[in-house]
Specification:
The protein is of the alpha+beta class. Helix content is 38%, strand content 21%. It has 15 helices and twelve strands. Strands 5-6-1-7-8 form a five-stranded mixed sheet. α10 crosses α11 and α12 packs antiparallel against α13. The longest helix has 21 residues. The protein is globular and about 60 Å long. It starts with a strand and ends with a helix. The mean pLDDT is 91. The chain binds a DNA duplex through α3, α8, β9, β11 and β12.
Length: 393
DNA sequence: TCTGGGGTCCTAGGACCC
DNA sequence: TCTGGGGTCCTAGGACCC
């Protein structure tokens, strides 16, 4: 049976949401109507474009480019800082509104959801009418616009919602793939990024249609096992389900770009401890336990490295994470200055894997952690941490 | 004042086992 | 007297997405 899938995507999410916030708070201008971007603070080296208005786009400004370069393209560019807390609020409003239409809803990211309406569509006599109703209601209720893609699977729904923006509904049913998707440049296809586009160009594949009809053996030379997936994607084939189960992270990570490059051990260890506590707390809140811990870093010359290690007992305990992080830190080249440093908890499961040890028990650690978390949640900002970690260099 | 941050998935290559 | 072969697990690195 053919499925009916909606992909609902907030137009220029960060920029729209900041526009909503500003208008609500008496700002007299809609920043969606001028050349504007949302970008981080350059002084703390976060100066890249996170979202752009349609007019900023006309100047050739793209996401993830440096603010410096964006300003050079457009002299009167208006720049606003991101407001992550407000974005989370809007994202939840959006999701809670949509989930009234079907229990089969998947939150794909902060600003997009998939809805499987296959079994609920009989409730709505006209699926297109329903999409317009959802789109218009979101605009009226919340003040931002969305695009909705309607298709028989997630891939095509997502492609469709990307067609023309903003505030639009598009369909891309299986029988429309040839007409609507084949003529597009292959770089428009999901999972085809910059590098893949370059490689495809070499073998004269320029449109999605070219890829759809490509010879798998030819592709294999460049893309190995990925070849079949690429051809399937180009043909609009995808049978991945809409997953509404509470989301279980595969990994939780955190990283920070430092105010200035450093190889000062004390500074780096202090930051690693801080971050160990943050990721640990996030894992504990979701009741997830990591069996792999990694540290990641970027050097002054922008080269990335990582070191990871599997644990015998999985954990989400701050002290245990930090202990492992420190031992991983010992492996890194202490001469190189570090620009960005991070921690990743990987192979997360919602049960604790524990090998029974004759010699020690982690029970005490876990109990202590629970007490610390309780205290910290009561007194917002105070971070309680065993003193030994502060006194040890 | 060049170049963020949080994710997922895949692959190569080494270690180790039988 | 000159180096197998299959399987699994683990780490490092890279591509891609929003």
């Amino acid at each position: 049976m053919k499925r009916i899938i909606f992909h609902v995507d907030v137009n220029n999410a960060f920029l729209s949401w900041t526009a909503v916030y500003l208008l609500k708070n008496g700002y007299d201008k809609d920043i969606r109507e001028v050349p504007s971007v949302i970008a981080g603070d350059e002084k703390s080296r976060h100066g890249i474009v996170l979202a752009k208005s349609p007019l900023a786009k006309k100047y050739g400004i793209v996401s993830a480019e440096t603010l410096y370069s964006a300003r050079r393209k457009c002299k009167n560019l208006e720049v606003f800082p991101p407001q992550y807390d407000f974005y989370m609020e809007m994202s939840n409003l959006f999701y809670n509104y949509l989930k009234d239409y079907t229990p089969l809803i998947e939150k794909a990211s902060i600003d997009e959801c998939f809805l499987d309406l296959t079994n609920t569509k009989y409730l709505y006599d006209d699926i297109l009418f329903l999409a317009y109703k959802i789109k218009n209601e979101i605009k009226e209720k919340f003040g931002f616009t969305v695009n909705i893609g309607i298709a028989n699977n997630k891939l095509c729904a997502k492609m469709a919602s990307d067609f023309t923006k903003p505030d639009k509904v598009h369909t891309l049913f299986m029988e429309e793939v040839k007409d609507k998707m084949y003529p597009l440049p292959v770089s428009d296809l999901l999972f085809v990024g910059k590098n893949t586009t370059e490689l495809l160009k070499k073998i004269n594949i320029n449109t999605i249609g070219d890829l759809a009809n490509a010879n798998e053996l030819t592709l294999k030379k460049y893309f190995k096992n990925r070849s079949r997936d690429l051809i399937n994607a180009a043909n609009g084939i995808d049978d991945s389900p809409v997953i509404s189960d509470p989301f279980i992270n595969k990994c939780i990570s955190i990283s920070r770009t430092l105010v200035e490059d450093t190889n000062n051990e004390k500074t780096l260890k202090r930051i690693l401890l801080d971050m160990s506590d943050i990721v640990g707390l996030r894992a504990r809140k979701k009741n997830l336990f990591a069996s792999t811990i990694a540290i990641t870093f970027k050097t002054s010359s922008f080269k990335s490295y990582s070191h990871q290690e599997k644990l015998i007992n999985s954990t989400n305990n701050t002290m245990e994470i930090y202990k492992k992080v420190l031992s991983l830190y010992e492996n890194i080249d202490k001469n190189e200055k570090i620009r960005n440093i991070g921690i990743r908890l990987d192979n997360l499961k919602n049960i604790k894997k524990e090998q029974v040890s004759l010699f020690e028990s982690n029970k005490a650690n876990d109990n202590l952690q629970e007490v610390i978390d309780k205290i910290n949640s009561k007194y917002d900002n105070s971070i309680i941490m065993p003193a030994i970690f502060y006194e040890k260099k």
